[in-house]
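Researcher: Please generate the 3D structure of the following complex. Treat every line as part of one assembly.
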Amino acid sequence: MSFLTGLYAFAFYFAALVLVAGLTWKVVQYARTPAPLKIPTTPAPITGSGVVLRMTREVVLFESLFRGNKWTWIFSWIFHFGLFLVTLRHLRYFMDPVPTPIAFIQPFGIYAGFAMVLGLAGLWARRFLVDRVRYISSPSDHLILGLLVLIGCSGILMSFVVHTDIVSVKAFFLGLYSFDLKPLPADPLLLLHLLLVAGLMIIFPFSKLLHAPGLFFSPTRNQVDNPRERRHLAPWAARFEQR
Amino acid sequence: MAKATFVVPALRQYPQVPAVTPGTMAHSAPFVAKPEFQAPLGFPGELADDWQAQAIAKMGELLGKYRSLRVYMDSCVKCGACTDKCHYFLGTKDPKNMPVGRQDLMRKVYRRYFTLVGRIAPKLVGATDFTKEVLDDWYSYFHQCSQCRRCSVFCPYGIDTAEISMAAREIMDSIGVGQKYCNEIIGKVYTIGNNLGLPGPALRDTLEGLEEDVYDETGVKVRYPIDQVGADILLVTPSADFFAEPHVDGLIGYGKVLHEAGVSWTLSSYASEAANFGMFIGSYENMRRISQRIREEAIRLKVKRIIFGECGHAWRVAYSFLNTLAGPWDFLDSRYPVPQHICEFTYDLIQQGKLTFDKTQNDDKVLTYHDSCNVARASRMGDQPGGQFDIPRAIIKAVCNHFYDMDEDTIRDRTFCCGGGGGLLTDDLMELRVKGAQPRVEALNNVMQEKGVTHMAAICAICKSQFTKVLPYYGMEMDQIVSLHQLVSNAIVLTPREDDDEDDDDEDDSQALDDDDSESVDEAA
Ligand code: HEM
Ligand code: HEM
Ligand code: SF4
Ligand code: SF4
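Model: Done. Output below.
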């Protein structure tokens, strides 16, 4: 086992632990925090299935963002959809045998990488060109975009220019499941790609990337509009009733 | 035109997003509440030496109590979708009035004390210590948010800046920095029963006066009862309705509708306020305490239904929170929603064909309708989503011949705030109110030019007061703003009734009640 293989194996165990533990902690925290009042942004669905539909539109189509700003919406949707396809395509490194749907999207997945980077470029440009967005951007906002662009570009380069030995890559990751360390190819692009990915996994629970789980817990979006029909009472607020 | 010590924005035909100009409103802050007005609400009178630690502790407490706050502090990706949505930013150009700019005032403190990265590398994520300067910024800019929720409509995560400014105000109250206007008013509700501090006898006087006026004008005896035990319906309305134009014309209208419906109803001198400023200061406890007055009265007066008059944030508290704060309402008639909006009541009667109108009575006006934010984005009317937009418009169309909506981008759930909501309806914030009204007034001006609109109807006491005051700054007339039920009142055809016998009974009832009444007022004081 080379030093590199050991280092990356450690990095990914650590990153996976931080990601899973951190996200679990956050999700549990969100779930445990009560929403004492009914505050859906109305008009809101008046049934549970209506809320599922509303959330689906938010998650899949970014409905509110569409109403809010068309440019941001276009770039954002291209980026996220690209990211989604890329992620699906990547699943083949972590599964054996590869399920048919994952195998099926492989050809599209390649181009999704370009979509992802294009979307990111558009979003990044806004941070320089639109004075309001420039005002609200802090260094971390630029860094996250840079990180994702680098991950995307290094990936694209591997797919189209400097190929790597993806069979070994897969063996390495499958081996991690059973603590059986297989050698990782020492291609600089791959090493960069993977290092940045580990970094992304680590910052996820501590950064604005929490928007992904956050959306599902947003009371203005996930509440049913039925306050007159159903009494809604948070545990801490119920204490007032006993007096 | 009213005199201003600041430049009143020009009205344009097409809305423009201004260039970011930092600091234009840094000087704007409302008067601070004196210690004697903090105490009745359960807040300390002034800043203590360890205010910073107290504030951070309070923030931690609220983060654990409100999921909205917790999730919204983490989730913003700085996408910018909300940046051009706030009327205060559009009217003042101050970037701290962009919703995300406002949120960031709290977020930078949150990040510093409650997140890992903010503790280790504050610069990276724009985190800062909670200094006195930051507190001053909070006081200034969290009192430049009318909690209208327009930003939450467009945010991809529904981040509601109103939730954040409510939390900020609660934190400030908890360390002794309260806003004079809101906190004094809440005190008046506790001691006298309503925001305007109108005592029972004054209310009874006003209502008697109204009865006479309506009788003189129409020849029909429409009653405006108060404190009547055993009435079917308790009407809770903003105290402005007892007091000033155009509000009082709305109250006259409710009375006429209730008269035509042939129901027995009553106002209350103890629960003589629909408004609930507890919401503006983000205080669940004060909001609950104010709401409980309505419950106490519903029980004491033995009513079967509760109806709310025209008031925006009051309808939010009533529709969305009243069941939580003062429910359960199982002792009321379950065939009707609790509470009901007067518009729902009037609309139902129109649907059933129980009201007759002479629309020509409103022919001197061409109407448009202002969706009040809290009704539009934080409540509902009727049993379908969006009823809060359709029902008021249906009523206007039933009583007026000429109606035109303003630009689609400025109505329904995209409506612009009047500029005076959220506890900002005070003279010490006049510049903010005038500038914040600009997007709404601009849209109004456009339908005035294009469609010949003369009047704008609203169903919110704050909107009505705000426009009455602010329209003159833009060269418009203060009476261009009307109550929706004022239009109903103009057009409704009344049927005379014989109710002299009833009168005597009622007299006894209200006599008996007066005694109870003074007792409970003392209790509250
Ligand atoms: C449930 C899944 C997700 C949803 C619904 C979602 C939705 C959104 C939306 C609506 C935006 C705002 C528009 C924009 O600025 O692009 C956004 C921004 C962003 N998302 Fe997501 N997202 C999800 C998952 C992810 C994941 C897994 C990542 C990263 C690995 C990610 C990375 C980002 C980044 C970096 C931004 C900020 C872009 C910028 O700086 O402008 N998102 N997301
Ligand atoms: C442990 C996780 C990951 C591994 C092992 C991995 C590995 C790889 C490899 C080996 C390639 C080259 C594919 C080829 O030659 O055909 C690639 C491409 C790529 N990777 Fe990753 N990657 C990972 C995570 C990510 C993540 C999280 C992102 C996005 C944020 C990403 C974005 C890309 C893109 C855009 C490409 C180019 C397009 C494509 O081939 O799909 N990768 N990755
Ligand atoms: S709630 Fe209204 S006033 Fe407050 S920031 Fe949002 S848009 Fe502006
Ligand atoms: S729209 Fe929402 S996520 Fe975007 S900057 Fe505004 S508050 Fe943040």
